[in-house]
Every structure is written in structure tokens, then in C-alpha cells.
Amino acid sequence: MRTGAGRRAGGGGRGPSAAVATPVALSLGLLVVAGCLLGWYVPGALAAEAAYRSASFCAGRPEPEGRGSAWTRCRGRWSPRSPGRAGPRLPGLRWAADGGSQEAWVRLEKEGALFDSLAPGDRVRVVRWRGEERAVVAGPLRQETSATPVDGHRLPYAVGLGLVPLGGVFGWVAYGWARRPEGAARTSWPVSVPMGCGLVLGAVGFFGPMVTDGLLDALLLSVGVAVPVLAAGVWLRWRQARPSAPPGILPRLPGRERSFPGVVVGAVPYGMTGFGTLVAGPEGLAVAAGAEPGAARLPVPRSVAVVRVRPRAGGAGEWVVECRDGDREVRVVTAKEDLPWILGALQ
Known about the structure:
By secondary structure, this protein is of the alpha+beta class.
């Protein structure tokens, strides 16, 4: 059985600062990207959409910086489902201005009612704004092109809202690893409760702008979901941290010292090789070099707190009392029948 010194010697050369640097870098990177999207790109996309919606139509040839329309004739159309068609996978239209022979083409956002109703030779109106084709109109039908600024904020807003919880989670991981540097390499943070909460909140933040109509609605949806998710996370963490014992095992405080086989394992001064006897008594728990009187002893400090009790993997009849001594992990291994005295002495 490895002692604390042995674990430190075989733990690898990666120091605590190197382990903490990874989640810190991930947290800062995600939060910086989210800040750029939410603070710069989304306001710009909203301003462009507002300018596009408020611009007026003008007849005839459109100006480069204005919004206008021109009557054109549809020369053909193609769909991503058309056999043998190469190039972009968005639906598109080929068109030429009335009286002109030069053809152009425009990509649509999707196949809609307008696209399905057009046939070669139909008359359409192409809406131009700031030098690009932004929409196609045919009678009462209108369909935006791939260059439309309408709803251009949705995807960056979704990505930004989704990255904020993930950045916070990696920051929490870095904080936890900084507090417990010796356990950083062993912590299974990818499946921890904070990481699970962060993934749920990130998914809600991403899909919120896609299913709501406004910025405030998406934000309220994310906040509304965050409250029960965080509450559930706090409850799960409390359940994990609460001391537990097998059914029927209750702590018992011995009136006199009791000695029985067992060891203490951990990067602590009292977790040493050769001390294979546990002594439980009114003064607490100690580890001894033997059961005979006068054997060397090392007291287990009162700062040790029980986390949970579980069977030892591969150990017939042996159980493990998982504890923490400040920021250090401590395990007490003993037989099941001796658990009440261990739990009573550690209270």
C-alpha cells in the first residue's frame, strides 16, 4: 500500500500551476470570445438589421448605398436536390434585368413558398441594399437571400450566451484546483456536477435565441432555467459531501481504547507504511505500529472530516472511510465491523 510520500514521488512532474493554467486559459478564452460576440458583433448586427428595415424603396436603378428594387425576369433556378448540380448547397435563382442580357444569380436562405412558385420567365423584383441583393419579391411573396441582415444577430448571440456558462465552469475548476493542488490531476472534472450544470446552461443559452423572438426573451429563458439547474447542482454537491455510511452502521464512541487492524492512506504525516493498527478511544483516532502496549502511535487530528464510506474495491470485507484533512484526501481502511468505532472517533 502506497504512503503519502510514495504518492508524491510517483505522481509525475506536472506541478499544480501547470494543472491550473489549462482551465484558466480555457475560461479566459471562452469569456473573451463571448464578450466580443455579445458586446461588439451582436450590437452591430442589430444596428444593420434596423437600418435595413427602416430604409425606403426607390424606383429604378438602385444606388450603391441605398435600398432599391429592380424588376427582373427569372432565367432559371436550381436546388441542392437537383441531380448533377455542383457548388453551394443553398437554393438559388438566375436572373437578368428587364431589357438586359447579362445574367446574375442569387442564393436564398432556404427553399420557401417563393422559390417553389417560380418558373423560368416569371417576373420578380430583387431588393438591393448597400450594393448586395438582400431579398427577392414576387407578388405577395418575399424571400430573403443569404446576404440578408435580418436575424443576423441570432447565431452570434446564441454562441455568446452558450460560452458564458462554460467559461464560468472552467474558472470554477481552476479555483478548485488552486485550492487542492495535490488532487488536481486526479479530479474527474469532466463529469463533475459543476461541469454538468455548465453544459446544461450552455445548451440552453445557445438554443434560447433560436427559439425566441428577442434578446430579452432569450436572456430571461436562460436565467429562468439557470435557477433550478443551479439549485439542483447545489443539492447534488451537498449530497456528495454529506457523510454517509452503510445501512445499519451508526457511529459509536468507545468508552475505552479499542485496537483493530487498519491503515491510514494519504499525503499526511500520519499515513505511513508499517503502521497497520488503528486505535479508537475517547481521545479520538490514532494509527499505531502494533497492538501491543507501548507501540509507536501517530494521532489522527480532529481536523479530519468524514466524506463518505464505501466498500474497498477488490478487498474482501474491507471498507474505506473517505475523509478530508483540510485540502488533503485521507482514506481509512478497516473491516466493516470496526466502522462504528472509526466513525465515532472521527466525530
